[in-house]
């Protein structure tokens, strides 16, 4: 496509990106609604909604609540199931010049493996993102993300059947995120994404009952950005694996902070709900930040040791 600033190019395992910006999984569905608003080919990649083996209806409602500087969600991995994603959603995205990061979820290691086997032959899936950190389901999810041995075993099982690079999405709901990062790196992970949401809840002051039907949910949005930056910084100190950073990004300035912290690319989540044009806006504004910082490219943050 024309008008692409080559200084924004980022090459990660499985993902050749025109720029470092993608929507975060779970905040963009499979792109159909946003495709009515702008050309998805403008994005660096698309991280699709978490996919499980069979279709899931998700948790009971209400499952979303606003909070100061953020939101709580307990969607519960609603999705049409791996085969429907393979047959109906991924072919739609083939109409755009953008690689796909396929988010994979499950209740058991066998379910993760099944989803990866189903999706790995899709031509536009560039890489997988293992969701081992979803706090909103009763089985699987965060159970794998808080135990280094379980996280490593799951990574090994998926790597054995995947023909594409595998990124592991880390949970912030742990004492030491670097222990999980090192465990999945040793198990063969090709990259990391972080952070997922922080477990939280709201209570209706008039009834004394939880606002969410699931009682607890995942906190996202600007409120979690300082936590995300700290964890990315900590993980960058112990590993050279590529990192896709996320957590409260709303602007190009936020993206620069994440790159300084150690991210190689970023995913934008909650901001898509309040401003569906946030990703193309950030992409358009990034070149001015490179000019202001005197950097030749996004890659210069790593090449010149610009990470703090």
Can you tell me about this structure?
InterPro entries: Aldolase_TIM, DHO_dehydrogenase, DHOD_1B, Dihydroorotate_DH_1, Dihydroorotate_DH_1_2, Dihydroorotate_DH_cat, Dihydroorotate_DH_CS, Dihydroorotate_DH_I. This is Dihydroorotate dehydrogenase. Keywords: Cytoplasm, Flavoprotein, FMN, NAD, Oxidoreductase, Pyrimidine biosynthesis. The active site is at residue 134. With 308 residues, the chain is α/β, with parallel strands linked by helices. It has one domain (6-304): Alpha-Beta Barrel (TIM Barrel), CATH 3.20.20. The chain has 11 helices and 14 strands. The strands form 3 sheets. An 8-stranded parallel beta sheet has the order 3-14-13-10-9-8-7-4. Strand 13, helix 8 (252-261) and strand 14 form a beta-alpha-beta unit.
Q: Can you describe this structure in just a few lines?
A:
The chain is an alpha/beta fold and 308 residues long.
Radius of gyration: 18 Å
* Main sheet summary: 8 strands, parallel
- Order of strands, main sheet, comes to 3-14-13-10-9-8-7-4
CATH architecture: Alpha-Beta Barrel
H/E series, N to C?
A: EEEHEEEHEHEHHEHEEEHEHEHHH
What is the straight-line distance between the termini? 34 Å
How many strands in all?
A: 14
- List low-confidence stretches: none
Average residue-wise pLDDT: 94
Counted up, domains total 1
Query: What percent of residues are in strands?
Result: 15-25%
Structural class assignment: alpha/beta
* Count of alpha/pi helices: 11
CATH first level: Alpha Beta
What is the share of helical residues? 25-40%
CATH superfamily: Aldolase class I
Cofactor: FMN
Function: Catalyzes the conversion of dihydroorotate to orotate with NAD(+) as electron acceptor.
Active site: 134
Subunit structure: Heterotetramer of 2 PyrK and 2 PyrD type B subunits.
């Amino acid at each position: 496509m024309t008008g692409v600033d080559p200084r924004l190019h980022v090459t990660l395992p499985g993902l050749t990106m025109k720029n470092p910006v993608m929507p975060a999984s779970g905040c963009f569905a499979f792109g159909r609604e946003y495709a009515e608003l702008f050309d998805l080919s403008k994005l660096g990649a698309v991280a699709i909604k978490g996919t499980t083996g069979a279709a899931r209806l998700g948790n009971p409602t209400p499952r979303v609540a606003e909070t100061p500087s953020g939101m709580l969600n307990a969607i519960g991995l609603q999705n049409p199931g791996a085969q429907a994603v393979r047959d109906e959603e991924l072919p739609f995205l083939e109409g755009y010049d953008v690689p796909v990061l396929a988010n994979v979820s499950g209740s058991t290691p066998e379910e993760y493996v099944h989803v990866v086997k189903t999706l790995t032959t899709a031509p536009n899936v560039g890489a997988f993102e293992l969701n081992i950190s979803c706090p909103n389901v009763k089985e699987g999810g965060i159970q794998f993300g808080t135990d280094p041995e379980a996280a490593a075993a799951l990574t090994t099982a998926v790597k054995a059947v995947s023909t594409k690079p595998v990124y592991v999405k880390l949970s912030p709901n742990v004492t030491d995120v670097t222990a999980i990062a090192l465990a999945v790196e040793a198990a063969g992970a090709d990259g990391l994404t972080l952070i997922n949401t922080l477990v939280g809840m709201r209570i209706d002051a008039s009834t004394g009952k939880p606002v969410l039907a699931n009682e607890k949910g995942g906190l996202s949005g600007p409120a979690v950005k300082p936590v995300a930056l700290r964890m990315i910084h900590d993980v960058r100190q112990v590993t050279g694996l590529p990192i896709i950073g996320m957590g409260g990004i709303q602007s190009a300035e936020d993206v620069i902070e994440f790159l300084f912290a150690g991210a190689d690319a970023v995913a934008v989540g909650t901001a898509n709900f309040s401003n569906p044009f946030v990703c193309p806006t950030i992409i358009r504004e990034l070149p001015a930040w490179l000019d202001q910082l005197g950097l030749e490219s996004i890659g210069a943050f790593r090449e010149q040791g610009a990470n703090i």
